[in-house]
Each structure stands twice: as C-alpha cells, then as structure tokens.
Design goal:
Number of helices of chain A: 5
Number of strands of chain A: 9
CATH superfamily of the largest domain in chain B: Bacterial phosphonate metabolism protein PhnH
CATH topology of chain A: Rossmann fold
Distance between the termini of chain B: 51 Å
Organism (chain A): Aquicoccus porphyridii
GO biological process, one term (chain A): organic phosphonate metabolic process
CATH class of the largest domain in chain B: Alpha Beta
Strand content of chain B: 15-25%
CATH superfamily of chain A: Bacterial phosphonate metabolism protein PhnH
Oligomer: heterodimer
Pfam family, one (chain A): PhnH
Distance between the termini of chain A: 48 Å
Protein name (chain A): Phosphonate C-P lyase system protein PhnH
Largest sheet of chain B: 7 strands, mixed
Number of domains of chain A: 1
Helix content of chain A: 25-40%
Number of helices of chain B: 7
Keywords (chain A): Lyase
Radius of gyration of chain B: 20 Å
Shape of chain B: globular
Helix content of chain B: 25-40%
C-alpha cells in the first residue's frame, strides 16, 4: 500500500465538501466562470480540483469511468479508499474522469432518457490550460456572453443539440474549475 | 463541538442531494427525483427546502429564512434556529446581507444579486398534477413537451371568469422547454423569476429538486389577447405607503376594519426606517 493512497482526502470533510460543492454549483450555474477548488490531492495525474470534485460528488453509488491515462493502480487504490466508487466502462458511468485527448468517443456515455434526462454522465475533463478566453458561451446562467478555453467546439455544439438530453462537463486545471452544462450554446469566438 | 454533522444531514445524503442539484441546474425547470430524507419537522414545513439549504450551506454563509415574506413567523423562525443549531451559520433578516435565502411562497422585494442563492420550499412540484394525477403520464407529457392541457386550463379560466384566475403558483416555461411550477408564490412575483441569483426548488414529500440558473428565460404562460399580468391588491402599504410591493390584507377588528401591509417585512421595515409612513403608522413615528 502506497503512502499517497491514504492521504490526500479532505481535512474536514463536511466543511471542505461544502465549500467544494458551492464552487461546483457556481461553476455549473454560471458557465465560463472559473472557480478555485483546493483541499484534496489524488495521485498523479489528477489535478487538485478534479480530486476535490470526486470527493465531493462521488461515492459507492456512482459508477466512475477512468480514461486510460488516469486508470492507474495508484488512482484506483485512492478512489477505493476515499470514495468507494465502482470503476466502470463508459456506458455505465455516472461520472467520468480523463484528459480530453484521452477520452473515448462521447457517444459512448449515457445522455439520459426523454423521461429522465438527469440520468446522464457528468464528465470531469483535465486540461493544460483553463482561462476565460476562447469559445463564446450563451444560455442559462450567462447574462450576455461568456468565454472559456474549451478544447473543441463541435462536440459541445452537438451535445447542446441533444437538449434536454446530453452530457454535462467540468473542466479542471490545477486548482481551477469551470463548468459547461448541456444547456449552454457554444460558438467559435 | 456539536453533536450534529455540519448542517444536520450525513455526508452521503448531501452528496446525493448535491448530484441532484447539479443535474437540476444543467436542465433548467426539469424536476430531478431525489431520495428525500425524514427531517425533524413534518412534511409541509419545508423539508425539501431544508434539505437543499443543508446541502448548499458553508460555514461562511449568512442565512435568511422567510415565510410568506415574513422573517418572524413560526416556520421561518424554526428553520432559522434549526440551522443556527446544526450548522452554526450566521443568520439575518436583511435580504441584502444574506448569501442563502430559504423562502416559503415569496420572492423578496429587493432585487437579488449574483452572490445569492434563493431556496424555495415546494409543496407540489408538478405543474400538471391537478390536470393529470398519474406520474407516469405527466412525466411523458414533459418528455414530449405536451403542454396543451395547461393552456386549456388557462383558457377555461378565461371562459369562466373572463380572465386568467390563477393568482399563485402561476405556471411558467423555463428557457423555452419545461413548464414549471414556481411554487405557490403570488403571480406578482413571477417576473422576479428572471434573476441574477441562482434559484433552487426543493419538494421533500414529493422528492423532487429543480432549478433556475441566473439570467434564465422564464416566461409566464398566457395568450396574445390575454397577456400575463402581475397583479396585487390595489392599495398602498398602510405602514410604509409603498405602492409597488405585494400586500397582505390583515383583518383588524370584527367591524370590517382592515389594513394592507407589505408581505416582505424586511423591505417594509427598511422603508419605515428611512422615513416612509403609511396611513396606519404609529403616531410617534408620524409626528
């Protein structure tokens, strides 16, 4: 058992998770806004923001997909100890974690059903750069327009076209976090 | 050291509620099922709102709780005390000073800001429930965007009364997709549903959570020849003389005496403190 398997959780779980959730809620309710998320440290290559998000939202009830570069024994052990989420293939995943270039085709993730659009995957995507520049965002949560350094445009436009079905996204980079719900219109800046 | 976990609920329950809240934000107006818990208060006292508030609170928050606009009614006081005891958060009666506001059936008069969250207590979250009692059917109607029945109901109002008689829980369409029950707020408050604040709705008994993100389009259903109208009692407040606020009618004796007062007690008190007086203001205040 490695040292970093047992460490890296929240120091004060109820309070740290409350702060982390508010950041996650704010990020998803205001697409394009970049929040800071600290307090958790998972084994490489997981960013602190993604680790905090996993600790806050995932537990034994939420099947989790790990993209190949994230699917390491060290991270599996860390998740088993801190979260207990079962690791699953994309079609069964409620949450997914990975780098954009490393993710399998988005079509493989559940997008919900017409009766239950909430039964869709939330993807946590690790980026090298996350700034409030780039693709133009409009829609719920945005007064006029917002900008976010999305890794691509077309997949998110296709996802928006599925509304009210679709995937929801979090982007993480270091301790930075941004959200992109399925309701957001994405255009080239 | 408190005997309660922070904000009463256990962590796994909070994670479950938080996941539902995020999906609710992602699909504005759609009712997300959640595993509502037994709370130490009866259904109908805001168990849904309390669970949403508990899942959102951080120790840095300042909480305000209103019941029909008032900070000092039983429901508001007991919920405020509940969170003082279980979450040790600061509480306030000032709309402006609050970061989280839990409300029963009103939206504060003062415009909310981007830093605030408004949590509604919802008795019946399904706007189509009184038209179609079967959950399987209403769910399918939402899936198919089949809202003709709601327009028929509003039309029957017009046929019977000459105008749309629905005065509270007036149905709205959110972002052009889902028809939503805004909880039993007076229709006077409907225009305020388009807000800079995040609005979260919790129905405990019915086990549903839904949301309106900031700056989301919220349209009250109406007809071209019978447009929506945000109505209120045609009086001024008898304590602060406001003509632009939602009023409660209070019977003052058994001889037909009555007064109209702002339903939002904090807003009314604020106006009185800055020198506004109404017809029935205390004498020493008007002297």
């Amino acid at each position: 058992m490695r040292d970093d398997t047992l460490s890296g959780g929240f120091a004060d779980p109820p309070v740290d998770a409350a702060h982390a959730f508010r950041a996650a809620l704010s990020a998803l309710a205001r697409p394009g806004r970049i929040e800071t998320l600290t307090g958790a440290q998972a084994p490489e290559p997981v960013s602190p923001a993604a680790a905090a998000l996993l600790l806050t939202l995932c537990d034994a009830e939420t099947p989790l997909f790990l993209a190949p570069l994230h699917d390491t024994p060290a991270l599996r052990d860390w998740i088993a100890f801190h979260i207990g989420a079962p690791i699953t293939p994309p079609h069964a995943a409620q949450f997914a974690l990975g780098r954009w270039s490393d993710l399998p085709p988005l079509q493989g993730f559940p997008i919900g059903t017409a009766d239950y659009p909430d039964r869709s995957t939330t993807l946590i995507i690790e980026l090298d750069r996350l700034t409030a520049q780039g693709a133009r965002l409009t829609g719920p949560g945005i007064e006029t327009e917002a900008h976010l350094s999305l890794p691509d445009i077309a997949p998110f436009r296709a996802n928006r076209a599925l509304f009210p079905l679709g995937l929801d996204f979090y982007f993480t980079c270091g301790t930075s976090l941004a959200g992109l719900p399925r309701s957001t219109n994405v255009e080239d800046a | 050291m408190s005997d309660y976990n922070f904000a009463y609920l256990d962590e796994q329950t909070k994670r479950m509620i938080r996941r539902a809240l995020l999906k609710a934000v992602a699909v504005p107006g759609y009712q997300v099922p959640f595993a509502s818990r037994e709370m130490p208060m009866p259904y109908g006292w805001g168990t849904g709102g309390v669970q949403v508030t508990a899942a959102c609170l951080t120790p840095d928050d300042t909480l305000k709780v209103i019941d029909q606009g008032a900070d000092d009614t039983t429901n508001a006081v007991s919920i405020r005390k509940f969170f003082e005891k279980t979450a040790h958060v600061a509480t306030t009666e000032k709309t402006r000073a609050a970061s989280v506001i839990q409300t029963r059936h009103r939206i504060p008069e003062e415009p909310l800001t981007a830093d605030q969250i408004l949590v509604y207590q919802v008795p019946i979250p399904e706007p189509l429930r009184f038209l179609e009692p079967r959950e399987t059917e209403t769910r399918r109607m939402h899936a198919l965007e089949e809202y003709g029945l709601m327009h028929v109901k509003l039309y029957e109002d017009i046929a019977r009364h000459g105008h749309i008689a629905t005065a509270y829980a007036y149905p709205v369409k959110v972002e052009g997709r889902y028809v939503m029950d805004p909880s039993p707020i007076p229709k006077f408050d409907n225009p305020k549903l388009e807000s800079a604040a995040l609005q979260l709705f919790g129905a405990g008994r019915e086990q549903r959570i839904y949301a309106i993100p900031p700056h989301t389009r919220v349209v009250s259903l109406d007809f071209e020849d019978h447009p929506f109208e945000a109505s209120k009692a045609d009086h001024a407040c008898d304590l602060c003389s406001a003509r632009h606020t939602y009023l409660d009618e209070v019977i003052t004796d058994d001889a037909g005496g009555r007064m109209f007062v702002c339903s939002d007690t904090d807003y009314c008190a604020g106006r009185q403190a800055t020198g506004h007086h109404g017809r029935l203001s205390p004498q020493e205040a008007t002297a």
